[in-house]
Amino acid sequence: MSLTRRVFLKLSAAATAALALFPRAALAAKKKMAVPLAKVEKLKAVDGWAVLQIKDKKVLFIRESETKVNAVSAECTHQKCQVAYNPATKRIECACHGSKFTPAGQVLNGPATVSLPNYNAALDGERIIIEMEE
Ligand code: FES
Questions:
Q1: Domain of residue 128, CATH code
Q2: Has residue 92 been placed in a domain?
């Protein structure tokens, strides 16, 4: 069976649309890494937080509860200052220009308009397992 020009053009358009919907970054392999809690005492207690360098990224870890930990980029999406967690307000704050984010990284107040990228992270006994792109 041969392709007619019309069918070929439809298939080409579909392939182009698929590439647009699933960019290469979305297909990048992810790797799980372990962060031992013994090395980060601050993350043992609820409301503890720490910024750790993992590979080439600075990651803000927040111990939200006995069973939950969040991991987001520690780099503000406005002009790349390092953010910090404020346990009193339960917000991630940027001291440079005042942006605020939820503990999961969603932007609440600008000037930042983009949420902090977040990573899959979970407690596993005495360590945190974080999943990052290779
Ligand atoms: S760099 Fe964070 S608010 Fe401007």
A1: 2.102.10.10
A2: yes
122 alpha carbon – ligand 1 mean position (Å): 28
**Ligand 1 center to 29 CA (angstroms):** 30
Centre of ligand 1 to C-alpha 81, Å, is 6
| Ligand 1 pocket at CB < 6 A | 76, 78-79, 81, 94, 96-99, 111-112
Residue range 67-94, pLDDT digits in tens: 999 999 999 999 999 999 999 999 999 9
Q: What is the mean pLDDT of the chain?
A: 85
Report the percent of the chain where pLDDT is more than 90: 62
Q: What is the per-residue DSSP string for 50-109?
A: EEEEETTEEEEEEE-SSS-EEEEESB-TTT-PBPEEETTTTEEE-TTT--EE-TT--EEE
